[in-house]
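I would like you to sit down with the record closing this message with an eye to the fold:
=====
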Amino acid sequence: MNGIFSFWQVYRAERALAALEKLLPPQVKVQRGGLFLQIPAAGLVPGDVISLEAGDLIPADCRLIEGFGVRVNVATVTGESLPKARDAHPSSEETFLRSRNTLLAGTPLVSGNGRAVVCATGDHTEFGKIAHLTQSVRHASFPLQREIAFLSRVVAILATALGLVFFLIGLTIPLSFTQNLLFAIGIIVANVPEGLLPTVTLALAIGAQRMARRNVVIRHLPQ
């Protein structure tokens, strides 16, 4: 049961993460040799000029060089729910995220059309930096893991102590050494909560489901 719960949660998380990959378009219109051609988005390099229309997903971090009524939904990167207007005018904003002439990879063009020059691709985009953060988390122990480890040590010490006490008591009564040892081992095993692991996993799975209803993806249950 514990394995089934863990597998189902990881499976759902991986499906959600796979869906995120669809936020970046597989094809894009890029200017090559004076003509706009359809090429895979992975083939973009900084300096390319791309053409965008309403409904397109922006394939890379860009700066507008020509735009008409451009509005983008940047919720996937900044969390802002309302579409933001963008234009090709020079911006004094130092932050790339806040500049009015920038388009961010992974965000959809809600309205308008225009041309933009690619500034960053792949891991160098703001979207790519966020994705990199999710993969570079150190595998440190989490608070829940530390608490469970502490509880396990306490239970192990108490169970071993009880087993030792009953073993010493057994030495004072007419029992063979083998019977006394088996009884002490039985006491130790009986004090170990076998249901702790599935109970914790089930509780974590329920918590992950509640988080999922709020659009939070939990990839690993202990987190």
